[in-house]
Structure formats: C-alpha cells, structure tokens
Amino acid sequence: MNTITTLQLKSYLAESSNNLKPSSLSHRIRFIRSLFRWSHEEGIIELNPASKIKEPKVGKRIPKFLTEREIEYLRDACFSPIEKALFEFMFSTGCRIGEIVSLDRNSINWGNQSAIVRGKGDKEREVYFNIRCDIRLKEYLDSREDNDPAIFVTERSPHRMSIAQMRYIIKRISQHAGINKTIHPHQLRHSYANPPVE
Length: 198
Description:
Low-confidence stretches: 193-198
Largest sheet: 3 strands, antiparallel
Shape: elongated
Distance between the termini: 57 Å
Strand content: 5-15%
Radius of gyration: 25 Å
Number of helices: 8
C-alpha cells in the first residue's frame, strides 16, 4: 500500500465511477479515506494518499411541490375536525411539523389570527393563518372535551400528539385523497413557500 499515490486513487475513482450517482461516489470515497486513514494510523503506510481526496458536491434536491388541484383533493379528503384543522394550519402557516406538535392553546392569538411557535434553536417566531384555518381550528377545539393544553391531541385518550402520530394523519389524508404519490408534511411547507401551479 505504500506505493499507492493520490494520483492513482483519483484515476481509479474516475475510471470506476462513471455510472455512479454523486451520493454513491461520495460513499465510495469515504470508504477509501477511512481505509487509508486507519492504515496510516496503524503504521502500515507512511503517508496517507487519500487525505486530499474530496467528495463531490451533491446538489440539494429540488422540493416536490403540490399542485393547486392536489391541494384541493387533500382538502376534500379531510373528514374529521382534527384532519381539517391540522391540514389548514400546516398549509396556511408553513410551520414545521415539530413546531406544530409543541403548540399550546395559549400560543394562539385569535385577534390577529397568529400563533407563537418555537422553531430551530429554540427561537420563537410569530406565524399567521387565514380565515379558513381560523374556522377549522375553532371547530376542532370546540369539538374536544379534554383539558389538555396542546393544540393538537391524540384522538383516543387525548394527550399531546407526537410527530409520528401527526405524520400518520397526513398520510391518512393523502390516502383518502387518492393522490398517486406519497404526501409528506414538508411538501405542504414547500407549497406554502412556493404557491402551487398546475
């Protein structure tokens, strides 16, 4: 292994990786760097020829937006008060699912249709929702008989909903809608940030 040079490794990667995706090539490079780093640390080789080999830059995936038609199909597929309220709040505010899970009733300012959410880095920010969301939220809260402070609670034995439970509800809505692709909460966020088009 002492005779292997950085140039030889680069040539090997260039010749053997023509059909690899950038992510697969990055995985291969990490493996090679790990192998040579270990060999160097164990004294098997004097120099590490892989230390200067860098991973390719993997471009960020373009978010998959929902069309206006798909948004309406999803809206029509919300049957229960919680489905309607959760869907409208996600779409109207663009909040992350983790922000919605932690919301309490006293976080809502009905006067100006806003809510204080706690986001990344434990930072608070104010988000606004539309009149449709306002109506659905009030209908949902009025339908509840529990005293849990959380805005969204489980349907059985009401207590604060988990992220997994909230994702399940979004999945259930998408199945009801019959849309031939998986709907994730973050797509509602992307559709909020980028108004859907046909």
